[in-house]
Amino acid sequence: MEISEKLLCLFSTDVVEEDDRYVIEIPRQEVETGDVEPGDIYRVALISRERETEESTTATDASSSATAPSRPAAPSEPQPPVDVGETRYVEIEDIGKQGDGIARVERGYVIIVPGAEVGERVKVEVSEVKSNFAVGEIIEETF
Fold first, then answer.
1. d(CA 23, CA 3)
2. Dihedral through CA 22, CA 41, CA 33, CA 27, nearest 10?
3. Distance between CA 4 and CA 134 in Å, rounded?
4. What is the pLDDT of residues 12-62, one digit of tens each?
């Protein structure tokens, strides 16, 4: 499967029936940390879950409360797109409140780069990963 470079976010969600329509919910984190803006119009692609993922969540769903709607076992918030120790080539787009460089990668995920300036293109090694941001140390100036 080919994924467009225009992809703004990727997450898992349920399709919910409401009266004469079906609704998908966008996790708050995608709007707060990504390029998604309320009120704008987006093209949406739906990708079905693989068979084994569906089977593994069925067992979990069966053990949940009878009054709660069926939900997949996986969290609805996406996992960070970087790992500790990973190297990335990034462009510094902004400066944070504490003077650190800010770069964005997939889905608008933020990498904080201490000592970097707006417009610099640097190679960083990710030293810390949180759910909504990472910290990267410069290992190569301007690439």
1. 23
2. 0
3. 24
4. 778 889 999 988 888 777 777 667 788 888 888 777 765 544 444 444 344
CA 94 to CA 118: how far, in whole Å?
Answer: 5
Beta bridge partners, 110, equal 104, 133
For residue 124, how many C-alpha atoms fall within 13 Å in the half-sphere facing its CB? 28
125 neighbors 86 (Cβ within 8 angstroms):
yes
141 within 8 A of 132, measured Cβ to Cβ: no
pLDDT tens for 103-122 read: 999 888 999 999 999 999 99
Report pTM: 0.49
Alpha-carbon distance of 38 to 110, in angstroms, equals 20
